[in-house]
Design a protein that fits this description.
Largest sheet of chain A: 5 strands, antiparallel
Radius of gyration of chain B: 19 Å
Oligomer: heterodimer
CATH superfamily of the largest domain in chain B: Thiolase/Chalcone synthase
Strand content of chain A: 35-45%
Largest sheet of chain B: 9 strands, mixed
Number of helices of chain B: 14
Strand order of the largest sheet of chain A: 6-5-4-7-8
CATH topology of chain A: OB fold (Dihydrolipoamide Acetyltransferase, E2P)
Shape of chain B: globular
Distance between the termini of chain A: 70 Å
Structural class of chain A: mainly beta
Radius of gyration of chain A: 19 Å
Strand order of the largest sheet of chain B: 3-2-4-7-1-8-11-10-9
Largest interface: A-B, 26 and 25 residues
CATH class of chain A: Mainly Beta
CATH class of the largest domain in chain B: Alpha Beta
Strand content of chain B: 15-25%
Helix content of chain A: 10-25%
Number of domains of chain B: 2
Chain lengths: 137, 384
């Protein structure tokens, strides 16, 4: 029994928060956060505990400038309700995320289009989500 | 794959279970068992010979346990690797490794799905991805649609070229009595169908059917004593590039490039040696991507390649000769049916859709949202 008590003193400290909760906290403040892996010299998204390029657990949180380019786009035609856009956006810092482009019709969204981030608050229990608008020239 | 020996094992028995819309109350394990009995009959072996059991399904959490219980056997080798529709191509490599090591000698690989009867929502539990789900992509279609849109942007691929894949599949299906679709389809018919997720209409998307089946894998030595000519496993390769579409490195290049290369190397063959291709066509873009990545045309040229009936009956390269997931059957995870058709083509059992002088076949499985790719190259006895 003594051995077990001793082992408990050696336990690694538990994480205080999760990657998802940290990400959402940034979004609550209107910021699009990603992680930077110094060991790989690249951005990491979605947020996680280990860098997928190097396995390092040293990932630094950074806030994106919120500028990006549409990498691909589709229009979903539900059996009921209006068509809507789903896009993949490459942010200038070098990470990609799923999102949608608002402010224009879903069919008007084009690959290569420059877009700007905004935090969208669906309301109720739903967490905020990152959406994009066409970048005004 | 490195470590596996070319032609050390063979597929000796293949069978579908009931397909399309199965009898009410039929379970996925019922379908696996029905397919297994038929596949064992096909090669002249029995349940008591089975010492390796593999299966995958979205509708049974501990499927291989339920399957072993149902059959009343306790095989020393069990496997239920689940990587979507490509699971069964992985199982072939795993069964082969176990047979080479002497861990088992007769492996059954089975699948069952009742997704049409119970509804897609019942058949596969919805998973929440906090970085994708809020945007309501219609999965899996929207993920493949994003790949298709990118391919169109990068290479000028057209909707008509995508539609040509569906038309070729339908033309093959009309030669297959077991196919779900029975009516001809035209390019215009694909383009004017209901839009699902741009650029796809419902005719760019796989069917939603019930179905299942099984194959029997054994050592090359034992295979020679079975009822029908063996389909030797000449090459295997696999690759996982991502799980969710937002993490796919390049939407125009799949892991089939790596899985194909590994399989060709093991088989000591090249694309020019292949007589028939069974490619996982969950959506029309799949066939184009896999033809490119498996080396049948250059990257970006797949759209032009599939035009003018090249992959249709009477075309120069037979692809998806059973009618594919687009027109034959697609019960959720289609990978097993690729292997079944490839074996039948090598045996010359395919009637009106039989490819002449068929000695080398590729069965290429895809899983998730272009996430997992697994290539199996099979050969008739003349390839040894």
């Amino acid at each position: 029994m003594l051995g077990i008590v001793h082992a408990r003193e050696d336990l690694m400290p538990a994480a205080e928060t999760s990657p998802l909760k940290t990400y959402l906290a940034y979004l609550e403040r209107g910021q699009l956060a990603y992680q930077w892996s110094a060991s790989a010299g690249r951005a990491v998204f979605y947020p996680r505990l280990l860098c997928p390029a190097t396995g390092s657990d040293e990932l630094e949180w950074r806030v994106s400038k919120g500028l990006g380019t549409v990498y691909s786009t589709t229009v979903v035609y539900p059996q009921e309700g209006s068509p809507y856009n789903v896009a993949l956006v490459d942010c200038d810092e070098g990470f990609r995320l799923m999102s949608r482009v608002e402010g224009i019709t879903p069919e008007q969204v084009r690959i290569g289009m420059r877009v700007q981030f905004r935090a969208h608050r669906p309301g109720g229990e739903e967490p905020p989500m990152p959406v994009f608008f066409p970048l005004e020239a | 794959m490195q470590g596996l020996k070319r032609a050390s094992a063979a597929i000796v028995g293949v069978a579908e279970s009931d397909l399309g819309q199965v009898a009410e109350g039929m379970s996925v394990i019922d379908l696996m068992a029905q397919g297994s009995k038929r596949a064992l009959d096909d090669c002249g072996l029995g349940l008591r010979d089975v010492d390796g059991l593999f299966c995958a399904t979205a509708q049974s959490r501990l499927s291989v346990l339920a399957f072993a219980e149902y059959l009343g056997i306790d095989p020393p080798v069990l496997g239920s690797t689940i990587v979507g529709g490509s699971s069964f191509e992985y199982h072939v490599a795993q069964a082969m490794a176990a047979i080479e090591q002497g861990l088992c000698n007769v492996a059954v690989i089975a699948y069952g799905s009742t997704q049409r009867t119970v509804g897609r929502k019942q058949a596969s539990q919805r998973e929440i991805n906090p970085y994708e789900t809020p945007f309501r992509p219609f999965l899996p279609a929207s993920a493949y649609a994003l790949a298709a849109a990118r391919h169109m942007h990068a290479f000028g691929t057209t909707r008509e070229q995508l539609a040509a894949v569906a038309v070729a599949a339908r033309d093959w299906a009309l030669l297959n009595p077991a196919a779900w679709e029975k009516k001809p389809l035209t390019i215009e018919g694909v383009l004017s169908a209901r839009l699902v997720s741009y650029p796809f209409t419902v005719r760019d998307c796989c069917l939603v059917t019930d179905g299942g089946g099984a194959i029997v894998v054994t050592s090359a030595e034992r295979a020679r004593a079975c009822k029908k000519p063996p389909a030797y496993v000449l090459g295997c390769g696999q690759s996982v590039t991502h799980a969710s579409i937002s993490s796919m490195p390049d939407l125009t290049v799949t892991g089939a490039a790596a899985s194909g290369q590994a399989a060709y190397k093991m088989a000591r063959l090249s694309p020019a040696d292949v007589d028939v291709l069974e490619l996982y066509d969950a959506f029309t873009i799949n066939t184009i991507l896999f033809l490119e990545d498996l080396g049948f045309c250059k990257k970006g040229e797949g759209g032009a390649f599939v035009s003018d009936g090249r992959i249709a009956p009477k075309g120069s390269l037979p692809v998806n000769t059973n009618g594919g997931g687009l027109s034959y059957c697609h019960p959720g995870m289609y990978g097993l049916f690729l292997l079944i058709e490839a074996v039948r083509q090598l045996r010359g059992e395919c009637g009106a859709r039989q490819v002449r002088d068929c000695e080398v076949a590729i069965a290429h499985g895809n899983g998730g949202v272009l996430s997992s790719q697994a290539t199996v190259i099979l050969g008739a006895p003349a390839t040894l």
